[in-house]
Amino acid sequence: MFAGVEEGMNKDTLILALETSCDETSAAVLSGKHRVLSNIIASQIPVHQKFGGVVPEIASRRHLEQIIPVVDTALAEAGVALQDLDAVAVTYGPGLVGALLVGVAQAKALAYALKKPLIGVHHLLGHIYANLLEHPDLKLPALCLVVSGGHTSLVHWQSHEQLSILGATRDDAAGEAFDKIARSLGLGYPGGPVIEKAARTGNREAIAFPRAWLEEGSLDFSFSGLKSAVLNYLHNAKQRGEEISVPDVSASFQEAVVEVLVEKTINAATAHGLETIALAGGVAANQRLREQLTATAESHGLKVIWPSLVYCTDNAAMIACAAYYRYQLGDFAGLDLNAVPYLPLDKALSS
Ligand code: KG4
Ligand code: ZN
Question: Partner of 238 at 20 to 30 A CA spacing, among 3, 69, 194, 304?
C-alpha cells in the first residue's frame, strides 16, 4: 500500500483529478466522497467552433498549454497544497489519444513526484458517478442512461465493483446525432444546446421523423436512420426551393431522440426491477429529456436523478468522484498507465 493511504482513511480523502479526453481541460479537488472544493474547466469550444467540431491536433496542443495553469488554479481555489493530496486521478480513456495523453502524463508526473497513488478512471464511469456528487446517499443498484457525444448505453449499475451493459447504440451516439443535425442546419457546435434552444419555439409534431425501436424487447439504440431521415428532409426541401423551419426540424428531431431514449430506459428499469434511474453524459443536460423521463418514470413509480448542468458535460469533479470509490477499494494504477482511446464501458471497473 502507498504511503499516506492509511492516514487518508482517518480524514476526508483529498483527491486531485484531471480530465482531458476531448475539448475541456479540467482539474478538480474533491474532499471525501462529494465535497467539490474546486472544479476548473478551461473550455476549448470557441477554438473548435469555427471548424464545426473538435480538431484533435488543436485539442492536444491546447490541453498542453492549459493543464498546468488549470491544476494550479484548482489547487489554489481549493486551498490545498500538493503535499495535502491523498491521490491523483485521471481519465485514461476513451477519448482522443493525444488529448488523453496530456492528462495521463501530467497525473503520472504528479503521482510519482508526490509518492501518492495514481487512479485511472474510465471517462464514462466519471459521467455515471457525477450523480453521486449531489446524491451521495443513492442506494445501488440503479439504472443509468449514459448519453454523451460518443456513447449511448443503458447501464445496470449494481455496485461500486460491478456494472453491466443492458443495451447500447449500434451506430451513432445520441449526442453525435445532435451535433450532425445542428451542423446541417447551420447552427454550429456543439449541437445539443443549440438544437434544444431552437426546439423551444418549434412544433414537435411538425415532421414525423422515424423512431428505431429495433427487435421486440431490444434495449439497443440506433440513431443513424433518424439522422439520414433529417438530412434527406433538408436536402429535399432545398431541392424543391421550400423554406425550412429550423425550430420545427429541431423540435421534431429532438422529440424522436427523446421518445426512444425514454421508452427504452423505462423498459430496462422495469425489466430489471430497478427503482432509480440516473442520467449521465452531455445529453443528460437536455431539458426535454429530463422532463419526459421524469413524467414517464413517475407514472411507473420510478425515481429519476441527474447531475447539475456543470457536472453533465465534461468536468474533472466527476472523475474525482469515481476515483474516490476506486480509492476506497484500493484500485490503483501503475506508473505505466497509458491513454486508451477505445475503452469499452464494461471494462470500467477492471482497470
Ligand atoms: O459528455 P460530453 O460533454 O462529452 C462526451 O463525453 O462526449 O457530451 C457532449 C455531447 C455533445 O454531443 C453535445 O451536443 C451533447 O453532449 N449535449 C446535449 C446538450 N448539451 C450537450 N445534447 C442535447 N441537449 C443538450 N442540452
Ligand atoms: Zn464526456
Answer: 194
Q: Give the residue whose CA is nearest to atom 19 of ligand 1.
A: 192
Which residue ranges in the chain fall short of pLDDT 70?
1-10, 351
Give the CATH number, domain containing residue 37.
3.30.420.40
Q: Are residues 153 and 301 in the same domain?
A: yes
pLDDT in tens, 122-152: 999 999 999 999 999 999 999 999 999 999 9
For residues 105 and 221, state if they share a domain. Answer: no
190 C-beta closer than 6 A to ligand 1: yes
For 224-272, how does the pLDDT look when each residue is reduced to its tens digit (9 = 90+)? 999 999 999 999 999 999 999 999 999 999 999 999 999 999 999 999 9
Query: CB under 8 Å to 162, separation ≥6 — which residues?
Result: 349
- Provide the pLDDT for residue 5: 46
Name the pTM for this structure.
0.94
Contacts of 23 (CB under 8 A, 6+ apart): 43, 44, 45, 47, 48, 54, 59, 62, 99, 314
Yes or no: say if 267 and 239 are a contact pair by the CB < 8 Å rule: no
Number of domains in the chain: 2
Distance 351 CA to ligand 2 centre (A): 19
Atom of ligand 1 nearest to the CA of 24: 3
* Domain-embedded: residue 11: yes
Do 264 and 342 fall within a single domain? no
Host domain of residue 266: 139-308
For residues 263 and 207, membership in a common domain is answered with yes
Tell which one of 194, 313, 318, 345 to mutate to probe ligand 1, the residue whose CB is within 8 A of the most ligand atoms.
313
Residue 134 within any structural domain of the chain:
no
pLDDT digits (tens, 9 = 90+) for 311-334: 999 999 999 999 999 999 999 999
The reply to whether 39 and 121 lie within a common domain is yes
- In the chain, where do the E strands start and end? 14-19, 24-31, 35-43, 87-93, 118-122, 142-147, 152-157, 163-168, 276-280, 303-305
